[in-house]
Design brief:
Keywords: DNA-binding, Elongation factor, Protein biosynthesis, Transcription, Transcription regulation. The protein has about 160 residues and is an alpha/beta fold. It is built from three helices and seven strands, in the order βααββββαββ. Helix 1 packs antiparallel against helix 2.
């Protein structure tokens, strides 16, 4: 198996950093207070508030540990004018197949995947096939349902209308 990339867009990194700060400075202290208040009520073994919030606190701590470690290894990739005209990390790409189906994807790191927005990871077969290609190039991608051919209609480093 190939080594996964540790790339992220600046906006993606800022979102993870914002989540970490929220969890550490706001949400964790709120839940810690609830645990303390529930513990002060006495018998913890039958105290649903205590049990629930203690479990929630463990989940928050786990997420905080993950984010701290993840943010340390991620490499922010900013747009460079040298990228214009070719597909690289962070690009929005519009593709069309022989049936006229049009799809739009943005190539991002694994921490930013959002299929509703069309964000795909750079480690995906589609993204791997697109890297370095230009408008009017054809790409073939092996999918579980067979080989699919796509043509690149447009490459942008700013969101398409209705995408972000």
């Amino acid at each position: 198996m190939t080594e996964k990339t540790h790339l992220i867009t600046r906006k993606g990194w800022e979102a993870l950093d914002k989540e970490l700060k929220y969890l550490w400075k706001q949400y964790r202290p709120e839940i810690t207070l609830k645990v303390q208040e529930a513990a002060a009520q006495g018998d913890r073994s039958e105290n649903a508030d205590y049990t629930y919030n203690k479990r929630l606190l463990r989940q928050i701590d786990s997420r905080i540990r993950y984010l701290v470690k993840r943010l340390e290894v991620l490499k922010i990739v900013d747009y460079s004018p040298k990228q214009e005209g070719k597909v690289f990390f962070g690009a929005w790409v519009e593709l069309e197949n022989d049936d006229g189906d049009v799809v739009r994807y943005r190539i991002v790191g694994k921490d930013e995947i959002d299929t509703k927005k069309g964000y795909i990871t750079i480690d995906s077969p589609m993204a791997r096939a697109l890297i370095g290609k230009q408008v009017d190039d054809e790409v073939s991608v092996q999918t579980p349902s067979g080989r699919k051919d796509w043509y690149i209609n447009a490459i942008r480093y700013q969101a398409f209308e209705g995408q972000e």
